[in-house]
Design goal:
This protein is an alpha/beta fold and about 450 residues long. It folds into two domains: about 10-220 and about 295-450, Alpha/Beta hydrolase fold, catalytic domain (Rossmann fold), CATH 3.40.50; about 225-280, no CATH class. It is built from 15 helices and 13 strands. Helix 2 (about 150-165) packs across helix 3, helix 5 (about 230-235) packs antiparallel against helix 6 and helix 6 (about 240-260) packs antiparallel against helix 7 (about 260-280). The chain is globular and about 60 Å long. Its EC number is 3.4.16.-. It is found in: Secreted. GO terms for molecular function: serine-type carboxypeptidase activity.
Length: about 450
């Protein structure tokens, strides 16, 4: 999610308590809240500054079904947005193998249920609480929390390289960095950092980056903030007078951004979103069809249980919060800064997937297309003129795919901001086919017919 909720303090209680062993290589026991089959393969801490104890919390799930040798099985890394929201939200509410269902049939709130749309069906899946100070991750002091995307990427690189050292087979596996919302900045930042850093390192220490995927991302805020009025107006959610009022507010955010008044620009963007919320009266801008917001409080209730913290190998003194105020404050001036140039390098040297839930009013289809058409890339003309194809999953309409070369864009029908929550099977089909370059994501575009049938493995 892209927001700036609750606080930080008790994370400072950790300091050196786990320093002798950052990595929880096996998870001991199951609990009534956390059955054995739902436990991650590995979880624990990855150091970003061993001298102070700052570390990123991780939770890793190996592929459920291997379709290739383990040494070649792709690894997906998931980063949540915020800034400051925990990736365990993605784990237990979106794309993990077991998730909390607000509509559980047995009447109990906190029941983990198997997720048939999990992203680790045939891939390894790694969740990272990023930046430090987020979720179960540790910032030994508030000053160590990153204030820009370079610092975010530096910490992520340290965590990812520490993770790949846990198992010799991790080194050779292709890595895909994925995430949503404010991770529209984190994902390009770490991808860009890897592309710049790898040539300086011996082969044995390089990160085997294969691609990046961004869902409903905030990536080029100055382009994206200017789309809210027209998007809401043509969706029938505001009238012409309100459109004009919103455009004036948007213009102020753009003006402040172009002047480099970063904190004021962030505040101006927040005013735009508040105006849009008040004008529409929607339950949430994340999905204009919802009558109530996403019920993510289930994850908070679940992860504050002592038995769950223990099962995950998390520091038990930390009170888990969905999003950290302290991280949000540290990155306040970063919000309106663009990382479009990073995406431009990634699309030249890697492959990029941009996907959006159709019902998202914050970082949705129109918002993303606004910056994509401005990308500096030799293939952008061909991409913009490429056919947008009807995409089906199991014979049913799932959305639309536009692809040329290394860039793919997907519109997921029936989904809001949290695409894997809303359309689990479609999101699974999308990520698998994009990674494996099959169906509409294959290179022989003229040969496919826009239908993807899911089979069991």
């Amino acid at each position: 999610m892209e927001s700036t909720p609750p606080s930080f303090l008790l994370k400072l209680l950790l300091l050196f308590s786990f320093l002798p062993n950052f990595h929880a290589k096996s998870l001991p026991t199951s609990t009534p809240s956390f059955p054995k089959q739902a436990l991650p393969s590995k979880s624990g801490y990855l150091p970003v500054n061993p001298a102070t104890g700052s570390a990123i919390f991780y939770s890793f799930y190996e592929a459920q079904n291997l379709t290739s040798p383990l040494s070649q099985t792709p690894l997906l890394i998931w980063l949540q947005g915020g800034p400051g929201c925990s990736s365990l939200l993605g784990n237990f509410f979106e794309l993990g193998p077991w998730r909390l269902n607000p509509h559980s049939q047995n009447g109990k709130r906190l029941v983990l249920e198997s997720n048939s749309g999990s992203w680790n069906r045939i891939f390894g899946l790694l969740f990272l609480d990023n930046p430090i100070g987020t979720g179960f991750s540790i910032a030994s002091t508030p000053e160590e929390i990153p204030k820009d995307q370079h610092a975010v990427a530096k910490h992520l690189f340290a965590a990812i390289t520490s993770f790949t050292e846990l198992d010799p087979l991790f080194k050779s596996r292709p890595i895909y960095i994925t995430g949503e919302s404010y991770a529209g900045k984190y994902v390009p930042a770490i991808g860009y950092y890897i592309l710049k850093k790898n040539p300086q390192l011996p082969v044995s220490r390089r990160v085997n980056l294969a691609g990046v995927a961004i869902g409903n991302g905030l990536t080029d805020p100055v382009s994206q903030v200017a789309t809210h009025a027209v998007n809401a107006y043509f969706s029938g959610l505001i009238n012409a007078k309100q459109k004009t009022q919103l455009e004036i507010a948007q213009w102020e955010a753009v003006k402040l951004t172009k002047e480099g008044n970063w904190s004021e620009a962030t505040d101006a963007r927040n005013r735009v979103l508040h105006m849009l919320q008040n004008m529409t009266g929607l339950a949430t801008l994340y999905d204009w069809t919802r009558k109530v917001p996403y019920e993510t409080d289930l994850v908070t209730e679940f992860l504050q249980k002592e038995e769950v913290k223990k099962a995950l190998g998390a520091n038990e003194s930390i009170i888990w919060e969905e999003c950290s105020d302290s991280v949000g404050a540290a990155l306040h001036e970063d919000v309106m800064k663009s990382v479009k140039y990073m995406v431009e390098l990634l699309v030249k040297q890697s492959k990029v997937l941009l996907y959006q839930g159709h019902f998202d009013l914050r970082d949705g289809v129109v918002s993303v297309e606004a910056y994509v058409k401005k990308m500096k890339w030799e293939g952008i003309g061909e991409f913009l003129s490429a056919e947008r194809k009807v995409w089906k999953v199991n014979g049913e309409l799932a959305g639309y795919v536009q692809k040329w070369g290394s860039l793919s864009q997907v519109v997921v029908l029936g989904a809001g901001h949290l695409v894997p929550t809303d359309q689990a099977l479609s999101s699974q089909a999308m990520i698998e086919d994009w990674v494996l370059e099959r169906g509409l994501f294959g290179n022989n575009q003229e040969e496919n017919i826009g239908t993807n049938f899911r089979g069991s493995l």
